[in-house]
Amino acid sequence: MASVPYPIDEGRGETAVRKDSYWARFAHAWVFTVDHKQLGLMYIIIALLFFVASGLQAAVMRAQLMYPNNTLVSPQAFNRMFTMHGTTMVFFVGMPFIAGLANYLIPLMIGARDMAFPRLNALGFWLTLFGGILLYSSYLAWAGTAGQGSAPDVGWFAYAPLTEKAFSPGTSTDFWILSIIMSSTGSTITAINILATALCLRITGMTLARMPLFVWMFCVVAFQILVALPPLTAAQIMLLLDRFLGAHFFDTRAAGDAVLWQHFFWLFGHPEVYILMIPGFACVTEIIPVFSRKPIFGRAAMIGASVSIGLISLGVWAHHMYTVGLPSKTNIFFAVATMLVGVPTGIKIFNWTATMWGGRIRFRTPMLFCIAFLFQFLIAGLTGIMLGVAPFDWQLGDSYFVVAHFHYTLIGGLLFTLFAAIYYWFPKATGRMLSETLGKWHFWLLVIGFHVTFDPLHFAGLVGMPRRIYTYPAGRGWEGFNYYSSWGVVIQAAAIAIFVWNVIDSLVRGKKAGNDPWDAWTLEWATTSPPPEYNFAVSPEVRSSRPLWDLKHPEDPDWKYEQV
Amino acid sequence: MSTAAALPLSKTESEVQNLDRGKVGLICLLMTEVALFSIFVTAYLFFLGKSPTGPYPADVLIVPVWGTICLLSSSLTAELAVRGLRAKAKGRFQLWLGITILLGAEFLRQTGIEWRKLINVDGLTISTNVFGTTYYSLVGLHASHVVIGLTLLLLVFVLGLRGASLDAHERRIELLSWYWHFVDAVWVVVFTVVFVIGR
Amino acid sequence: MNLRFRLLCNFLLFPTLLSAEPLHAVGNIFRPLATPAELVSDLSTLTLVICAVVFLIVASLLAYAVIRFGYREGDSRSEPAQVYGSNQVEIAWTVIPILIVFVLAMSTARITSAVQDQQVPKDAVNVTVIGHQWWWEFRYTDLKITTANELHVPLSTTAERKLTFLTLKSADVAHGFWVPQLAGKTDVIPNRTNRMWIDPKELGIYLGNCSEYCGTQHANMELRVVVETPEDFEKWVTQQQERAAAPESAENQRAFLSSACIACHTVSGTRALGRTGPDLTHLMSRQTLAATEVPNNAATLRDWIKDPQRLKPGNKMPTIKLNDTQLDQMVAYLTTLH
Fold first, then answer.
1. In A, which residues are within 8 Å of B3 by CB distance?
2. Can you say whether residue C247 is alpha, beta or left, with left for phi > 0 and alpha for psi between -120 and 50 degrees?
3. What CA–CA distances, in Å, run from A461 to A397, A454, A455?
4. CB interface of A with B, residues 335-394, below 8 Å
5. Does residue B164 sit at the A interface (CB-CB below 8 Å)?
């Protein structure tokens, strides 16, 4: 180690005066921590736990729908299940997962010691977790005078006036409202933290132009969270006022308006799906170049496309409302806007492809997940265009075609990128590699299971199967698609089981990873695996967007070619 | 990896460019608040004229002139307080802060008086009709933000009285004053929508 | 739901084979049988083709990249050429998609207008559709007919175009009216009036569903649209306009009229004036029960009245305690209401 002109702090060793008890150390690590890496991991852990719970709900639903006129579960139980499944996946799997990625990686990628507001960070985490616990405690809720306790059953977008006290007596809807308000507060905290960190804590030499695209995309996401979550919170406050103080926002029997809820909800709801998906884009934008051995193609275009998506996504919400009976001019406007938001998304797919073009692609597990993502998200985006064409949506909307579309974006798109991220950054966080063999089994089983389940559901929608039905009769043309779709669940469950085993086994005896197992180029690979609490002992020099490439290739550094 | 050029842990890029994370954080928070209030304002405008039965805005709303004067002046006095703090004149700071709090409290008192009249005399509650619903929720949302602001201002005032050294917290107190200005700016919008457009 | 009901549903699905009309049970959106559905189908096909072409091109490029540029043993271990981007390429793949969007937008605008802005002709059949939890009420206000769950409309031919205009209202929560082969879906929202139209071009019975989640029994809110020749439609109208059939047995009618049923149901010309549930005046003219596919006959009707919660758990018809005699009498009366 070259001599340095200042003492290097190796950790708590020199300064610790007494050894804390096991429980004190446990509490500091897992309860009182404000360290971004620890909180990041905690976010991801709870996301995975809720993922398993919600996946089980999905499995039961697909078992019920496997046959026509099935009686595996009651209609009430089924309706609760699809509500909880959707709510959990969006608010307690998706949002915590992206918060975890942001919190863990952003400070490392910009050479900072922690996020801008570490204690606020911890508050955000605990609010999110307790929101999830509140939601699930609804299953234990007291039956109430109307005998209507238990989990919410109004659908994850909770249309009015079904959610008014008159039609949903009891407490279940209130659990839905309050748990999401808690979780949304946590998400807002994360968003504030992301922007403050990225704008204020970048290391010397890292201008905004040289900031990793991962961080850029999370800044777009943070902006969207700040602007798009409040409409949901506002609508939920209004619903609480309706339910408890007799207000009439959505009370259609007293001049309230059901469509107003839809406007407010989808003002949140559409940006929300980009809030979930853009972090996935952020991950693949870092992973694909490393495994193709080339820089990302068109950095400036990627930034421009991300910002465009962030902005345009705020103006397309009524494509969820084409069947509501809005005037034709309104429907046309939103159709055009929706199609336009597909353009920057397409640009990104082209740029990722061009990054691989002319490269020397290594097909390790993270890259496999990225490649599957590209094919699957292409399809998802195109079915999205179909849904954006308003008249086409008059047939496809509220049918299983939509269910297939959004599972394609969320599983085929987001989940695959999240697995790519886990396989890529697990070595950094834990110091150990995940098994390649198990990873490939996980990958292929998930691809097969995913397609077996969701490809047929497009067709069920094309022949008239509406969504959110607990059963269906024979003879409508839906039986075959549902039967085969349900088999995919078994395959996907096997894939997830292999993944869980991979994680546990690798934590114990995975191959040691070292600082930089993938030969990558961003700053997180310039420190140990796992990083010390302070992240960087030595500040790396940053003169381009790929500081480690410049270090490893002093004869051909990026800063000779990059304009900024 | 130790071929890295060993620079001492230096200023961040943004410290060089003078971006304060407290300011960025507060601006982000204010953005969410703007979005939140926008939805309630939208609902208010949407339901104008849609109440099937009275009371109606033109019949019962009294323009809160005095309350508005108090609230908007409190922005001025808040700014004077911050200037006093910057000039290290603690006495001046405490004085103007105290006046700010009193003015804010007077605004709330006026709101309370108006609501008492509306409920007891005019029979307008949040459940009477959609006007009542949107009026109380919008003005109430704003008032709740005034309460939060007053609580924090009072906290700073009391801590200052008890001898806390506030110079170290100058930045934070300035950010609090920005929040207070924001609350006043929102009132300008609410006032326009409820008492000018809506009446 | 017990085995008997399941058997009935699975095997007696086609009571309509007894009638001459074909059953359009599979709502394939690409087999449209009315103008709105046809307009939508044409645009949908165009959209599908465009998306398919885009998919083939991009997927081929992706597949080629993956296959051609994989690292193979023996390849040089040095890094490939570090290409940062190309402005021309970026512009190209921005402009081309925008052009595609432009084409699709033009067609979308045209079809959206054609469907939504259709004027109501003077000779249109007008029906007010009222969505309830969990059944459909149909009121032909001009013709003074009220019925439930089964919508009769006249056939439309090129020689004689006959449009049926539906005015959609809800009595409680949001529902959706969707019969795929006739038109795209339109939501049925309380405190709001929506409009749609159909001009069915083939005789038959079209099945559809409620398409907006509306609570516990959203799944069992089936729509049956019976498209008849204009003559048959007139016959049906006349039949529906008549008052309730005179009772064969006064005692049977008394059993019904003294029950709690009349609080929710109407039989015109009697004391039964309830409006919460479906109108029963011409109950036996309907093919199925309770907006499900259970066929409508004495046996199923008896089971339904005895325990409505068995066929449709959570639905709003309460289980009324009736002894066998009362039940038999009521069923005997109701089955006379053609």
1. 551
2. beta
3. 9, 11, 11
4. none
5. no
pLDDT at B2 over 50: no
| A1 part of a folded domain | no
pLDDT at C21 (0 to 100): 73
B15-30 tens-digit pLDDT: 555 589 999 999 999 9
Q: Which of A496-505, B93-102, B164-173, C241-250 has the lowest mean pLDDT?
A: B164-173
**Closest residue, chain B, to A184 (C-alpha):** B32
CB neighbourhood size of A286 (10 A): 26
**Is A18 domain-assigned?**
no
Cα separation, A364 vs A362, in Å, equals 6
- Both tokens of A313, joined, read 């996504």
For A85, half-sphere exposure in the C-beta direction (CA atoms, 13 angstrom radius) is: 17
Residue C70 in contact with partner chain A when CB distance is under 8 A: yes
C280 touches chain A (CB under 8 A): no
**Residue A237 and residue B137: Cβ atoms within 8 Å?**
yes
pTM value surpassing 0.80:
yes
Is the minimum CB–CB distance between B21 and chain A shorter than 8 Å? yes
Q: Which two tokens stand for residue A284?
A: 């693949």
Q: Say how many C-beta atoms besides its own lie within 10 A of residue C325's C-beta.
A: 9
Spans of all domains in chain C: 20-65+87-232, 250-334
Please provide the average confidence, as pLDDT, over all residues in chain C. Answer: 92
Q: The domain C20-65+87-232: what is its CATH number?
A: 2.60.40.420
Span A379-406, average pLDDT: 98
CA distance B22 to chain A (A): 8
In this complex, the residue of A197, A202, A222 whose CB is nearest that of residue B13 is A202
How confident is the model at residue A150, as a pLDDT? 86
Has residue A200 been placed in a domain? yes
**Structural domain boundaries, residue A458:** 31-560
Q: How many domains does chain A fold into?
A: 1
Per the model's pLDDT, the better-predicted residue between A237 and B166 turns out to be A237
Q: DSSP of A450-479, one letter per residue?
A: HHHHHHHHHHHHHTTPBSS-S---TTSS-H
- The CATH number assigned to the domain holding A551 equals 1.20.210.10
Q: Is residue A23 part of a domain?
A: no
Name the CATH superfamily, with its identifier, for domain C250-334. Answer: Cupredoxins -  blue copper proteins (2.60.40.420)
Q: Does the CB of B144 have a partner CB in chain A at under 8 Å?
A: no
